Amino acid sequence: MRRVCQGDLGGLAALFERYHRPLYQYFVHLSGNRDLSQDLVQDVFFRILKYRDTFRGDASFTAWMYQIARNAHTDSLRKRRFEVIPGGADAKEFEIPGHNEAPEQSIGRQQELKLLRKALDRLPPEKREVLVLSRYQNLKYEEIAQILDCEVNTVKVRVYRAVQADRT
Q1: Is the model's pTM score more than 0.70?
Q2: Three-class secondary structure of residue 104 per DSSP
């Protein structure tokens, strides 16, 4: 990120290569919409470039980037609040590229992924988000606290409650 802050836009390409897939997965888990997720990833990298002067090295780049992603998602929700998006995510959105399985395993995995998507869809957005950040993006509670602008203990409680809500 230092290179990008200094005006070297080649550094943005390196950041894109490293982070576009995790961001895409984050958005798919939140929205269930592949096309929207791709658009949001592009928007995040545009915003990283636009707001590069606001990055301070005292926080992790990942936390800063996910805060931008969170804002992009919120802005998208505001713009689309009156739109009707047909259907949710299908299991293919969660497939791991190049993952070779026997047909029986693939069918079982697809069924599990559909159940996962339904469980995530039932959660309120704030619980879904904290669960996606902690369990699917594998962020540390400290990073999630920076993203959500709250204390680490608050994040722990939110994750616990989201997991408990998912089990009911």
Answers
A1: no
A2: helix
